[in-house]
Design a protein that fits this description.
By secondary structure, the protein is mostly beta strands. It has one domain: Jelly Rolls (Sandwich), CATH 2.60.120.10. A five-stranded antiparallel sheet has the order 1-2-9-4-7, with no helix packed on it. It starts with 22 loop residues before the first strand and ends in a 6-residue tail after the last strand. The model has no long low-confidence stretch (mean pLDDT 90).
């Protein structure tokens, strides 16, 4: 019988931001190539300009995210919802309340 190794992660694995910082992250796993990583991320109410170089899957555990693209279109994600932000996305992460999310980051391969 083959045993599948696993890594358990829970929201409590990432402490609240400290020292005046607005965000905190706890990486649970990164593959040896650095192409894939995952963990827990927390933020106090905050607004962040983003420019994604990696694909990101997000699952909101607590709070609410207003994600606005460069054209001004806004999508709202709440606790219990998941979504993907593709590499190349530019826009605004607006969090009117504190947020906790699971994340999976993947670096896309360069075209051959």
């Amino acid at each position: 019988m083959t045993v599948i190794p696993s890594i358990r992660i829970a929201p409590d694995d990432c402490p609240a931001p400290t020292d005046g910082k607005l965000t905190a992250a706890s990486k649970a796993y990164a593959d040896p190539t650095g192409a894939l990583s995952c963990g827990i991320w927390r933020s106090a109410p905050n607004r962040i300009e983003v420019n994604y170089t990696k694909d990101e899957f997000c699952y909101i555990v607590e709070g609410e995210v207003h994600l606005t693209d460069a054209a001004g279109k806004t999508e709202i994600y709440r606790a219990g919802q998941g979504f993907v932000v593709p590499a190349g996305f530019k826009g605004i992460w607006d969090m009117p309340v504190a947020v906790v999310k699971y994340y999976v980051l993947h670096a896309p391969r360069a075209a051959a």
